[in-house]
Amino acid sequence: DLIVITNNLQRRDAAKALVAIDALEAKRPKSALPHNLRGSALLLKSDVAGARVAFAKAPELDASYFPAAANLASLDMREGKRGDAITRFERMLAKEPKNARLAIALADSLARDARPPKEISDVLERTIKEVRSAPELHLALVAHHLRSNKPKLAVNAAQAGVAALPNNGQMLEQLGLAQQAVGEGNQAIAT
Fold first, then answer.
1. What pTM was estimated for this model as a whole?
2. What is the 3 state secondary structure string of 21-85?
C-alpha cells in the first residue's frame, strides 16, 4: 500500500493516492500514518482545509507523530499563524524533552518568527542537556550561533559537541568553521 501511495503522490495523482490511503487506513485504523498521507494527498488537490483536518487527526492517534505536526506547522506558517506552529512544537517538546527533531523544529519556527537568538539557543541547549548524544542538536546550535553572528558561542557549542561526540566528523568540521569565524585560523586548520 505504501509503495502505491508514494508512487501516486510522486506522480501527483491525488485521486489514486486517496483510494490507496483508504485501503491502508482500513488495515491500520489506529495508525497516524494514513491521516498524514491523506493530508498530503489533499494538499495536491489544493484542499488546504481538508488537509488540515487530516493532519490534525494523526496526533489524536499518536501524540508524538512528528510528520503530521510538521505538516500542520508548515500550514500555520503559510497562513501567517507562526504562534500556532510554535505552540504546537512547544507542547510536544514538553511531553518529549529528549526529541531532537522537535527541538530543532521549534528552534526553526522561533527563528522564522524573528524571536531573540537567546530564546532559540535556550531551546536547543535544554534539549542537549536531555540528550547529549544527538549530533543534529549540537550542529543546529553551532549553526544558530554562527547565523546570529556569535562566533565565540559557536566555538563553545562546537567544543561541547566534540566533547560529547569525539568521533563525529561533522562536529569537528563545525568546530573548525567556528574557530575560523573567531579568527583562530591556525586552530581551525589543526582541527
1. 0.85
2. HHHHHHHCCCCCHHHHHHHHHHHHCCCHHHHHHHHHHHHHHCCCCHHHHHHHHHHHHHCCCHHHH
